[in-house]
Amino acid sequence: MAKKKTDTPHISVVNETSLAFFEKYINNPSPTGFEWKGQQLWLDYIKPYIDDYYVDNYGTAVGIINKDAPYKVVIEAHADEISWFVNYITSDGLIYVIRNGGSDHQIAPSKRVNIHTDNGIVKAVFGWPAIHTRQAGDKEEAPTLKNICLDCGCTSKEEVENLGIHVGCVITYEDEFMVLNNRYYVGRALDNRAGGFMIAEVARLLKENNVQLPFGLYIVNAVQEEIGLRGAEMIAHHIKPNVAIVTDVTHDTTTPMINKIVQGEIACGKGPVVSYAPAVQTNVNKLLIESAQKSNIPFQRQASSRSTGTDTDAFAYSNDGVPSALISLPLRYMHTTVEMIHKEDVDNVIRLIYETLLNIQDGHDFRYIK
């Protein structure tokens, strides 16, 4: 059974400076395939805490500590957020879209968006017919990719194009970061820029506590996870790590309309989540759990069946097999503009990654049979 939360006082890790960065980082758009502005923000924040850095051809950013050490440990998150592409512009100036990642068409109506063009941001809205004009009951038409469209205040295709909008322009929601009830961080793209923030905070703690690691640490903020773990796949082959610890979000299943029999029981505020799946190497997972227990960090458990659906899978099956494990952050309302994460869970994921790193030895061999 997962370790229950104790009466041990919560240890706050995030400070005012790092929280200000987190808010700025979340509010900055970083759509899949167009992550570079967010990556620059992330690198600027992490540079004081690392020895070197590397950015690959598609934008995955890597902060490095102890670059020359032969044994390599990765801590990883992904930087991209779901978005839309302009797909079709009508003669009367309306814009139809296709997904870039797992964007939810049902939340789109009445949302405000930013269309990213070479001329800068163009504002638009997902329009939707007034309730007075729609058929009631079972015949009422639901939002789909075929009927949601953007209105940027134009009356012709030519007027839209004169704003710099063309097929292929990327579109993001403009909803911004907030703190709810002094308990939750709320915003879009907490999946998974919260992960990028947390691994950056691990680097900060290592530096501020003057920790001398006996191995090379590669702090990886990968691109293109939302379309198939592509950034992690590329960077794993470049780094060739000996072990990888990945962090991503997972569903808080205590919210309405989620079946716990299918999804398991995970709740915000009860700690980081360790996963069980074929890609999760058992001995690395045991080290996570031992580190949590040793440091009185509450945690939860999750069974992920055939795959985790995260960058863990990409690292695990690269380079003839890399011992990998996943630490998940419980999150409510995934792939909406009001994703919610608990402040204490953020602190505890940071602490768990940090404490686990302190328990990895140079040349640590995670194999079952030696």
UniProtKB/TrEMBL annotation:
Gene3D superfamilies: Peptidase M42, domain 2 (2.40.30.40), Zn peptidases (3.40.630.10)
GO molecular function, one term: aminopeptidase activity
Keyword line: Aminopeptidase, Hydrolase, Metal-binding, Protease
Cofactor(s) of this protein: a divalent metal cation
Alphabetical list of CDD domains matching this protein: M42_Frv
GO terms (BP aspect): proteolysis
Keyword Transcription: no
Sequence positions that bind Zn(2+) 1: H78, D191, D248
Database matches in InterPro entries: Peptidase_M42, Peptidase_M42_aminopept, Peptidase_M42_dom2
Domain of life according to the entry: Bacteria
Family, similarity comment: Belongs to the peptidase M42 family.
PANTHER family from the UniProt entry: AMINOPEPTIDASE, AMINOPEPTIDASE YPDE-RELATED
Name of protein: M42 family peptidase
